[in-house]
Design a protein that fits this description.
The complex is a heterotrimer of chains A (194), B (101) and C (395). Chain A is built from six helices and seven strands; from the N terminus they run βαββββαβααααβ. Chain A has 194 residues and is of the alpha/beta class. In chain A, helix 2 (106-112) links the parallel strand 5 (97-101) and strand 6. Chain B has two domains: 1-32, no CATH class; 34-101, Alpha-Beta Plaits (2-Layer Sandwich), CATH 3.30.70.20. Chain B has a two-stranded antiparallel ribbon with strand order 1-4. A two-stranded antiparallel ribbon of chain B has the order 2-3. Chain B is elongated and about 55 Å long. In chain B, 17% of the residues are buried. In chain C, the strands form three sheets. Chain C has a seven-stranded mixed sheet, with helices on both faces. In chain C, helix 7 (140-157) crosses helix 9 and helix 10 crosses helix 13 (361-377). The radius of gyration of chain C is 21 Å and the shape is globular. The chains are: A alpha/beta (194), B mainly beta (101), C alpha/beta (395). Chains in contact: A-C, B-C. Chains B and C meet through loops of B and helix 9 of C.
Chain lengths: 194, 101, 395
Amino acid sequence: MENINLTEIRWHGRGGQGAKTACMLLADAAFNSGKHVQGFPEYGPERMGAPITAYNRISDAHCDVHSNIYYPNYVVVVDETLLNSVDVTSGLHEAGALIVNSKKTPEEIRQKVNGYPGKICVVDATAISLETIGKNFPNTPMLAATVKITNLIETNKFLQDMEESLKHKFSKKPHLIAGNIAAFKKSMEEVLVG
Amino acid sequence: MSLKKASLINTNSTWQEVTLAGEIYEPSTSLLFNTGEWRVNKPVIDWDKCTHCLLCAPYCPDSSIPVKSGLRLEYDYMHCKGCGICANVCPVNAITMIKEG
Amino acid sequence: MARKDKMSGNEAVATAMRQIEPDVMAAFPITPSTEIPQYYSKFIADGKVDTEFIAVESEHSAMSACMGASAAGARAVTATSSAGLAYMWEVLYIVASSSLPVVMAVVNRALSAPININNDHSDSMGARDTGWIQLYAESNQEVYDNYIQAFSIAEACRLPVMVCQDGFITSHGVSNIELLEDSEVKDFVGEYMPADYLLKSENPLAIGPFGVSSYYMEIKRKQAESMKASMPIITEVADKYAKLSGRQYSFFEEYMMDDADIALLIIGSSAGTAKATVNLLRSEGKKVGLIKLRVFRPFPRESLAKAMCKVKAVAIMDKAESFSNSGGPLFSEARSSLYDLPNKPYAINYIYGLGGRDITVEHFCEIYNDLFAIIDSNDPGDVYRYIGVRDSRFK
C-alpha cells in the first residue's frame, strides 16, 4: 500500500466564526505548496453560534477516503467555550496536538480536556484579531497557528500565498490586507506550545 | 427503420417504423385523417336556394365548407362530422340534414 | 493541456458548464445544488458566457423551461437536489419521452420526512425509471469529467442525462482536480446541431403529440431501444474522452477484482472510502475487491453480472431505501442480473448512509468480515441488512 503521508485535522468552531473558511483556506494554502487536499465541513442547518465541525486531509498523493475524521492528527478549537460542551480531543492522536484559541496556559487547558497527554498549544486569537484587524475574526490567527504547529507548509510560502489571495479577496477593501497579514504573523509568534 | 412521412404510418406500423417520440415532421397531417366517417347525418345543399351569404362557412367547426372567390363550394365530406350547425344557421333553409347510409 | 486546480464538486460542475456554455439554463435554487446556478449566474453577470438564464419560480417550471428550450433547438441545462427533483417528476418523464437531450446536474440529497439536507441517493434513485441516463461520481474530478461527457452522450442518444454527485461530500468538499482547457472542452462537445427542432422554419415539426393506444406502445418500445442503443455510445464517448484527458471511464470500475474472493458493489463518494478499506485489508493479505458503478441507467446487466461472478460473495450497497421489503434499488437490479448465471456469488444488501449518516473504513471492514463469514459457513443469513444504524437487537 502506498504511503501518502496523510495528515488529518479537525476544526471545532461556532456557526459564524469562520472555522469553515479557515479550513478552506488551509486547503488552498496546502494545495499551493503542492499537496493533495480535502477541505470539507460537516453540514447541517445553518445556525449562528451552534457548534460546527470542519475537516482537512492533507497528503502527498490522492486520498480516496470520503468519511468524516474520527482520529485526527490535530484538532483546532476556534472558540474556547466549546471545551465545556464538545469532546474536542475525541480520537486525537497523542503524537499530534490540540490548538486552542485561549488566554489560558496549556496546563490550564489540559485540565479541561480530560488530561489529553499530547501537545497543547494556545494562542489568544481573539485578542490578536481585535488588535490587528479591529474585529473579532479569530479564524485568521487560528489558521496561522495551525500552519505553524502542523509544519505542513513552509511559513513564508504560506504568508506569500495568503497575501496574494487577500489582495484578490479584498481588492475593494485594501486596508484589510495589512491587518490580516499582521494577525497571521503575530499568531505565529505568540502561539504557546505546552 | 423509422418512416418519416405521416401518410405512410398507420396502425399496422411496427415500433421500428413509428417515429422517435411520435414526432411529426410535416404540417397539416390532420388532412390525412378521415373524420367524415364519424358522420351520422349528412348536410346536403340545395344550390337553387343558396344565396352565397357565406354564414355557414365561419360557423363550421371543422372547416369543411370551402369558400372561393366569394362563393361557397361543395362540402369537404372527408372532414365534415355532420354536426348540423350549418343547416341551423342557414337563413334561407338551403341545407337539409339527411341520414347517412 | 491539463490545468491543476482545487475546487468543490459544485464549482467543478459550474466550471464545466462555463467551458461548454449551453444556450439556456433554467434553475431554481435548492441545497446542496444552489451553488451551481449561483456560480453560473456570476459567470453570466461577468460576461464570461452568453447563456440565457431563466430564473423560474419552481423546479417544475425549471424542467418545463428546459424542455421548451431543448425542443426549440437549444442546448439546455439545469441543476437540482432532493425535493426539487421530486417536484420535476412529471416533466422528467415528458423530457425523456420526447427524446430531448437536456443535461441536469443532480446533487444527491435525502428526501423528507423527516426534513434533512444531507446526502443519500433517494432523490435520483426515485427517478431511476423516468427514462433519463444516470451517471454517478466518486469525486469532484469524476463529476467534472462526467458532466462534459454527458452532452455528447445525450445528443448522440437523444436522451436526457442526470449527472449525479453526493451532496456536501463532494459538492462542498474542496479537493484537487485537473481541468481541461476551455477550448478542449468546447471542441469535445462541439456545436449542438439537432436534425429537427421547433424553430427550424424550413422543416415544420410537431413534438409531444397525443399517442392513442394504437400507437403509444410502439413509441414506448422505440424509447426503450434508445436506452439500449445508448450503451455503445457511452463507451465511445468515454474512449474519446480518455484520449483527451487521460482518464478512462466505463460503466463501472473494478478495483482489485482479479483475484478477489469477496467484493463490494457501490455507487458514489463512499466508493473512495471503500477503496481505502480494500487497500487496508489487502495489506493484511485478505483478497477483497470492489466494483464502483458509474452508469445506473442504462443498467449494464450482463457485464456487471460477469464482474460480480469473479467472487464468492458480494455486498451490494444502497444509499437509498426503496421500501420494497426486498432491499434497495441497486440490490434488486444487480441481484436480478445474476439470475441467469450458473455460478453466482452470494449477494447481500446493505442499506447505508441515509440522510448523511457517515460510513467509515471501520464499517466497510465489518462488511468484508461478514462476507468472509458467509463464504466460510455457506450461509448467507438475512440478505437485506442495514449498516450504521442503531439497533436494540445488537446493543
